[in-house]
Specification:
Blueprint (H helix, E strand, L loop, with lengths): L7 E7 L3 H14 L3 E6 L16 E5 L2 H4 L9 H15 L4 E4 L4 E5 L3 H6 L7 E4 L1 E5 L14 E3 L5 H8 L1 H4 L13 E5 L4 E2 L7 E2 L8 E2 L3 E5 L5 H12 L10 H30 L3 H10 L2 E3 L16 E2 L5 E5 L4 E5 L1 H4 L5 E7 L6 E6 L2 E7 L5 E3 L6 E6 L5 E7 L2 E5 L5 E5 L8 E3 L4
Parallel strand pairs: 1-2, 1-4, 2-3, 6-12, 7-13
Antiparallel strand pairs: 4-9, 5-13, 6-9, 7-8, 8-14, 10-11, 15-26, 16-17, 16-18, 18-19, 19-20, 20-21, 22-23, 23-24, 23-26, 24-25
Helix pairs in contact: 7-8
Length: 434
């Protein structure tokens, strides 16, 4: 493992056209990946001799010889991905690993190394939320990455039915056709318990996993062209692409595709593809207005901000701060902080199982710990449970639960931790700090 802990390697199990692999490599080299590990899942489809050579790009031909080290080739793609992930983690010299599909490209508002360097030592993994690509017109195979339009998750079923229709509403995940869980940067130094590659568990249970970040996003080009869409569908139906985790919704979706194809042929299937993946005219305007479709580009954006600084706002849009004099936290208006050195903005590290509050002074993190009587102490872990809730518009709100009850904020901004019921005074939100 890299001693600095801010370098990273990307890992992918691949069966894709060479031009997609080359685009993937070029993007992640530009993003600053120290290493790229590509496992060629079908050696008859991708021949390593036909791919470009780079200093820190490692190709693995997953033939019978490769799989003989574990007995034989696993039948499901998830198990093959898991074995490949383990193999690459054992060989990498980077401080972090990121496992993604070949059609998933990372973007970051801050240089990736800067984000990773800012991660507290107690963090095992970082969750990178995904967006899903859509197109304003039908595309060819080689135009897969030529869009700046992406969907965000929403839960407004009335809106989604208006956009996609009732039948397709039943086979999407909050507006997404593929997975909606994101992928994780995993620290190489820590042991892993279980090998579910999207969100592996640490052996050491005191570590934080799947910590939320507003600094990075994963652009998933699941849609691609109609020919790729159809090829993938038939491979699934013919069970050439076996998965051990084919969910009920995936099975139902394949059933819809098969029914339409058998009843209406290629023209019917193509119309389904366009309804799902091509948004134009009034449909696109509605989606943009709703915030369901947003613009992103593949260039690394340069934003002057401290990574992982996610402020906390209450129902009055006041921001949470730490009062150095009273050693308490409270909510104040944003204007109150201007020129007021006696207070520091409080941020939250949102983890999958527990979360942490902290503030920053001179680029250092000071963690907050809840003492008896609601007293706050500096520089110790204040382990809290955050209950996340995705709103109809796609925004994320949460409540903070301690051993004594919910954190609450009254009209004067006073914070308590003993509310037994969750009302609007016990629901908070966060946003990107510009």
């Amino acid at each position: 493992m890299d001693s600095q802990g801010d370098t990273w390697a990307v890992i992918s199990t691949v069966r894709a056209a060479n031009y997609i692999i080359e685009s993937f490599i070029s993007h992640y080299i530009a993003m600053g990946a120290k290493e790229i590990h590509l496992f060629l899942d079908d050696v008859s489809f991708n021949e390593v001799e036909t791919l470009s050579r780079y200093k820190n790009v490692f190709y693995y031909e997953c033939d019978d010889c490769y799989w003989s080290r574990i007995g034989s080739k696993p039948e499901s793609i998830e198990k093959r991905q898991s074995e490949n992930f383990k193999f690459a983690r054992g060989r990498t010299t980077a401080g972090w690993t990121l496992h993604v599909d070949i059609d998933e490209l990372l973007i970051s508002r801050v240089k990736v190394e800067k984000v990773l360097k800012a991660v507290p030592s107690k963090v095992f993994s970082i969750l990178v939320r995904n967006l899903e690509a859509v197109y304003s017109k039908e595309i060819s195979d080689k135009e897969i990455f030529e869009t700046n339009l992406f969907k965000k998750k929403i839960t407004d079923k009335v809106f989604l039915e208006d956009i996609f229709g009732k039948e397709l509403l039943g086979v999407c995940r909050k507006g997404f056709w593929a997975h909606d869980k994101g992928k994780s940067f995993v620290r190489t130094a820590f042991g892993i318990s279980g090998w579910w590659i999207h969100s592996p568990d640490p052996i050491e249970k005191s570590l934080m996993k799947m910590v939320e970040t507003s600094d990075m996003e994963l652009l998933h080009y699941e849609s691609s062209s109609y020919s790729s869409f159809k090829e993938k569908m038939f491979r699934r139906l013919n069970k050439k692409s076996k998965t051990s985790r084919l969910s009920e919704i995936e099975t139902k979706k394949l059933g819809v595709f098969e029914y339409v194809f058998l009843k209406e042929g290629d023209s019917g299937l193509k119309q389904i593809y366009k309804t799902m993946n091509v948004l134009s005219g009034d449909r696109l305007k509605k989606c943009i207005s709703k915030g369901f479709v947003v613009e992103r580009n593949l260039k690394n954006e340069s934003v002057s901000k401290s990574p992982f600084c996610m402020p906390i706002y209450n129902w009055r849009s006041e921001v949470l701060v730490y009062d150095f004099a009273s050693k308490k936290i409270k909510f104040v208006t944003s204007d109150f902080l201007v020129g007021n050195d006696g207070f520091s903005q409080v941020y939250i590290l949102l983890g999958a199982e527990f979360s942490i509050l902290f503030f920053r002074v001179n680029e250092r993190n000071f963690y907050l710990f809840l003492k008896e009587g609601g007293k706050i102490e500096e520089n110790d872990f204040f382990s809290i449970k955050c209950v996340l809730n995705t709103e109809r518009d796609g925004s994320i709100k949460f409540s903070i639960l301690t051993k004594d009850g919910y954190m609450s904020s009254d009209k004067q901004g006073v914070v308590t931790f003993d509310k037994k019921l969750k009302n609007k005074w016990e629901v908070f939100k966060t946003s990107y700090e510009e």
